[in-house]
Write a structure and sequence with these properties.
mainly alpha, 193 residues
């Protein structure tokens, strides 16, 4: 089961990474187009090559609706990275006090943290599902590109459900670890326990 969950989390993170990389490329191209647009339509270019400057106004500029695509894509990417972060215990933690606690107390704290994470991830997935149903039902579209907003909700919902499943899995693992006293999934922090 752990291999499957790890592969699922890594696959989601890879997809999220690809989407994020494409969004970075999109943003760079759009910003470059915006800068070139300003230069090509400035006073200098109008005086040197007015015909080219007038022609370029139709072809050089920012990508229309880039911020809408970035907004939808980043939301998906965040949810796509959550499963890997959850299964690898990659969340930020401050353990100044916890490192002084006995092993059983640390296992309890880790279990409690993963249970809370699982509950929060389930809540997020549930509310995203409700938002998806609402956006699908009312037919809302984005302002510039006019793509249905529910598409972004649907992609984020799939990633959030995956994160919730991984969160529940990790909560169950941590409960078993606390009950049995045996570490089943090492985080790298248990070597001192």
């Amino acid at each position: 089961m752990h291999k499957f969950m790890t592969k699922l989390a890594r696959a989601m993170a890879a997809i999220g990474g690809i989407v994020l990389s494409l969004l970075i490329l999109l943003t760079c191209v759009s910003i470059s187009g915006r800068l070139l647009n300003g230069f090509l339509h400035g006073g200098l270019m109008q005086s040197i090559a007015p015909g080219f400057s007038d022609w370029a106004i139709n072809y050089v500029g920012p990508i229309n609706g880039d911020f809408e695509l970035v907004e939808a894509g980043v939301a998906f990417a965040i949810f796509a990275f959550l499963p890997l972060c959850q299964i690898s215990a990659g969340h930020a933690s401050v353990d100044i006090l916890a490192s002084k606690f006995p092993a059983r107390v640390n296992r309890f704290l880790r279990m409690l943290t993963d249970i809370v994470f699982a509950l929060v991830l389930v809540l997020i997935a549930w509310r995203l599902g409700a938002g998806l149903a609402s956006k699908y039902g009312n037919g809302e579209t984005s302002f510039l590109l006019e793509f249905p907003v529910w598409w972004a909700y649907a992609l984020s919902f799939v990633a959030a459900v995956t994160a919730a499943a991984v969160g529940i899995y990790m909560a169950v693992i941590r409960i078993l670890e606390f009950m049995t006293g045996q570490i089943r999934i090492w985080e790298g922090v248990e070597t001192d326990l």
